[in-house]
Design goal:
The structure holds 2 protein chains of 2 kinds. Chain A is built from 10 helices and no strands. By secondary structure, chain A is mainly alpha-helical. Chain A has a single domain, classed as Up-down Bundle (Four Helix Bundle (Hemerythrin (Met), subunit A)). The radius of gyration of chain A is 21 Å and the shape is globular. By secondary structure, chain B is mainly alpha-helical. Helix content of chain B is 85%, strand content 0%. Chain B is rod-shaped. The chains are: A mainly alpha, B mainly alpha. At the A-B interface, helix 3, helix 4, helix 8 and helix 10 of A face helix 2 of B.
Chain lengths: 258, 62
Amino acid sequence: MSKVNNISTADSRWINWFKWSSPSTFYPVAGKLIPIFWALTAIFGIAGLWVSFFVAPVDAVQGQGYRIIFVHVPASWMSMLIYLVMAGWAGLGLIFNTRLSAMMAQALAPIGAWMAFLSLWTGAFWGKPMWGTWWVWDARLTSELILLFLYLGFIALQASIDNPRRADKAGAILALVGVVNVPIIYFSVKWWNTLHQGASVSLTKAPAMAQTMLWGMLLMTLCFWMYSIAVSLMRVRTLILERETHTDWVRQLNEVNH
Amino acid sequence: MWNSPSEFFAMGGYALYVWSSFGACALVLLLEPIVIRIRNNAVIRRLKQQLIAERFDKESSQ
């Protein structure tokens, strides 16, 4: 008897799993999640900016210029994290042949590219006053630039193939091969002699100071993180509509019929 | 920490660098959802037109 029960529960869990991988069930769920992530973005953003500008003290070496860290580090971390998540979804799509996973990967690429761009942009505006140059062909900077090109390559490759399923496959392979770049970025400051500082400026200061700087960085990272989730859910909903145009459930949606 | 608003905006002489960084982030992060919204509205408009066209086809063939 218990054996039968076990099988049935395992069975239902298995079915649930796949239920969520269907665009028609995910679409309304994503719609409900988006406002929650926007609220979290706002909360962490306000707290993070307040700590960044009004709580974190001036840096002993870099003066007020160091405050760029509060957007530079979150953008850089998110550019790497989003790439890993994107490659993960692309890989799942490749293995299980699920449409939604491939759409998730496709939805993550633009926001990841923007994060990589912002990392390079804020890095340039930090490098100019501190190093005296906007750009150097340093290992950290170059590998981050390659990450931006990987994102752009993924987007361009998918856009250039008309058949969406084939576009998903080609994009997934590019995304998975590109994963090798992420640890290169992360460890570049250890593996090579670079101009880019190692860990974080805050860690070399007095503990009390480091604490508030670290808090500012963490809050801003959480803000960027929640933002990325909100924006990619918005984008995946648009992609679902675009790619499932022919299906009945899309035609029966409220927003289409009113 | 800041004695006046002008001191805050001057950022200890790093105003150009600090505000260009935060400004670019704000701009990108604001534009991205707007662009997605426009694209989303375009799909929904196209879907609506398709449905109207199909209904019209059905009615005129009867």
